[in-house]
Amino acid sequence: MGFTIAEKIWNNHKVFNINSKEDLIYIDLHLLHEVNTPQAFDILRNKNLKVRQPNLTIGTEDHNTPTQSIDKIIDNPVGLHQINMLRKNCAEFNIPLYRLGEPGQGIVHVIAPELGLTRPGMTIACCDSHTCTQGAFGTLAFGIGTTQVAHILATQTLALHLFKKMVITINNQLQNGITAKDLALTIISKIGVFGGKGYIVEYRGEAIMNMSMEARMTLCNMSIEFGAYTSIIAPDETTFLYLKKSANIEPYIFEEQVEHWRTLQSDKDAIFDKEVILDASTITSHVSWGTNPSQSVPLTGCIPNLESFATEELRKEAELSLDYMKLQPGTAMRDIPIDVVFVGSCTNGRIEDLRIVSEILKGHKVSKTVDMIIVPGSFAVRQQAIAEGLDKIFYEAGADFRSLAGCSMCVGLNDDKLKENHRSASTTNRSFQGRQGKGSFTHIVSPPVAAATAIMGRLASPADLID
Fold it and tell me: How do residues 241-264 score in pLDDT, each as one tens digit?
């Protein structure tokens, strides 16, 4: 019997078996940010421990940081304290740190690939659930808790539960204008928010092979939203081309690495515990209507009637979501007005996303009833956008293109929050109650839908601009 790519990487990093449910796994790369890590360093100090391999750990300031001006950090005492603690801890333990507004800084899941740190066959961990983003490169990447952060810092290993294996095969190709975000929302609506619980999910198929690395990262990023342990895509020529540009590897060594990376494929006789098959050509633009990503429908559709849900539990969840969102069953998605459009986050804050948005905004104006905020995922993304003139398109359209990179309105820890009873179309990954601000409403959308919505003042697609 053959092995899946996940099993191959797992076995290559297995230190020993702890018990029937857990293995101790070596971690190649450990990523830190300011919010969830101070306590981990306190654990080290209390136990008189050192960081075992500081060269395999990097930090960045991204979650509780301002996006308008570095000076505004003083207006956020909690954020300032968290940043100062990260700086103190990284300095004390000799860990590289990318500071706010400096080259290399940005959302942790965005900068790791940009800096060439994420490479096929690696194991990666970070105190953030969306670490699964890195799986787009053929890595095993896990979101972890604070005590696990301390364990990796001290030992460079992590105890991980054994996993089940799921494969999601996406046949054919996505239609023009349909994105990885639409595919992700379709998958989640199909299998539910717990459909991937306990599984490492492998994505494959023609649609995946034709995706850019940015799109693959978006898809893997959303895997946690249906409960997946993590997700992975086998590396291919698209992966290698990206790494050739980003990874600082001598050419002759790079070619040797590529030969190894080509072996990181699931064997033909590998057995999966579960398989999901979708036809990419049938997928359309999707938008969420509720308080979790599974509650989504095509943009051309309506909010479903409660009677359409298969179980009483799902009906109750839908009823509670609609009550919170102040929406009614049967409402056409295109009839829902939007107050704020947010483009950014580790899901859709990369240069490809900003290019898509700029193409749609060019020659148009943001609706007078809408505030549009665009936050680059990294310092490098912002610099590239300026080099390509995207910033001018954003400003001329009336969008607010922020000066600093960070998580921003995705987590709503800084000043970038929605006001109570305000409704957003957001390229983020979650629509939980109050995530973007107390009493606010979030509709998860793709970058093209975000741009069209900003122009129309209601949920819309680029096709609506032509109509």
Answer: 999 999 888 888 999 999 999 999
In this structure, are strands 22-26 and 157-161 parallel, antiparallel, or unpaired? antiparallel
Q: DSSP 3-state assignment of 197?
A: strand
Residue 252 pLDDT: 85
| CATH class of this structure's domain 286-466 | alpha beta
CB 416 within 8 A of CB 422: no
Can you say how many angstroms the Cα of residue 163 is from the centroid of all Cα atoms in its chain? 22
Residue 183: name the closest of 213, 216, 143 by CA. 216
Contact 107, 377 (CB under 8 A): yes
183-238 tens-digit pLDDT: 999 999 999 999 999 999 999 999 999 999 999 999 999 999 999 999 999 999 99
CATH C-level class of 5-162? alpha beta
pLDDT in tens, 183-198: 999 999 999 999 999 9
Rounded CA separation 27/87 (Å) = 23
Strand order in the sheet with 164-171: 230-233, 199-204, 164-171, 274-279
Residue 412, pLDDT score: 86
Domain with CATH 3.30.499.10 in the chain: 5-162, 286-466
Pairing of β 274-279 and β 286-288? unpaired
How far is CA 36 from each of CA 43, 103, 181, 230, rounded to the nearest angstrom?
13, 23, 27, 20
| DSSP 8-state secondary structure symbol assigned to residue 175 | P
Residues 442, 447, 449, 452: is their CA dihedral positive or negative? positive
For residue 271, the tally of other CB atoms under 10 A from its CB is 12
Asked if 36 and 148 touch (Cβ cutoff 8 Å), the reply is no
Classify 103 as helix, strand or coil. Answer: coil
The percent of residues above 90 in pLDDT, for the chain, comes to: 95
User: What pTM, to 2 d.p., does this model score?
Assistant: 0.97
What are the structure tokens assigned to 251, written together? 């050419």
Which amino acid type is present at position 277?
A: I
37 within 8 A of 29, measured Cβ to Cβ: no
**Position 244, amino acid:** K
CATH number, span 164-236+265-282: 3.40.1060.10
d(CA 183, CA 185): 6
What is the identity of the amino acid at 50?
Answer: K
Where in the chain do CATH 3.40.1060.10 domains reside?
164-236+265-282
CA–CA separation, 200 and 372 (whole Å) = 36
Q: Round to whole Å and give the CA distance between 155 and 49.
A: 10
Instruction: Give the count of alpha carbons within 13 A of 372, CB side only.
Output: 30
Judged against a pLDDT cut of 70, whether residue 467 lies above it is answered with no
